[in-house]
Amino acid sequence: MRLLLHTAFVAAALCIGLSAAGQAKLQNVSTNAIPQTPGGEFSVFSSITKYLTQGDSASLASWFADNLEVTVISSSRNCSRKQAQEILRSFFEANTPRSFQVTHKASEANKKYLIGLLNAGGELFQVTIYATASAGDTYKIQQLNISRQTAY
Hints:
Low-confidence stretches: 1-39
Helix content: 25-40%
Structural class: alpha+beta
Number of domains: 1
CATH architecture: Roll
Mean pLDDT: 77
Oligomer: single chain
Shape: globular
């Protein structure tokens, strides 16, 4: 399992063209898993990745839009911020998070995307987050998808 996880991280690093220093950052688990760019382009995800690592659904919910699409494993639904918080609380209770590693991030005008691997409850889950900015630079999560990671 450890070799498979390591292989997945190395493959992800190669796919997104990280430097040797970036590969070291990818392999080290931290609460601020997204490296900061000088302009802080992806700083919006710093808190989000920390809350995923901690399994803190209440703090994570503060980043949710009023209504969002949440998919956990195979159950998908559009729901309110409070409903989404409860869905994640239940998920984190059943799958205690151990680490979260960012494997890909991208942005467009007023849109940010993040894909990462969540090690929780002895399993790996792929997490995909789509956030948009409304008035100003306030980003809110519009979509959150957690699916079981399949073996390579």
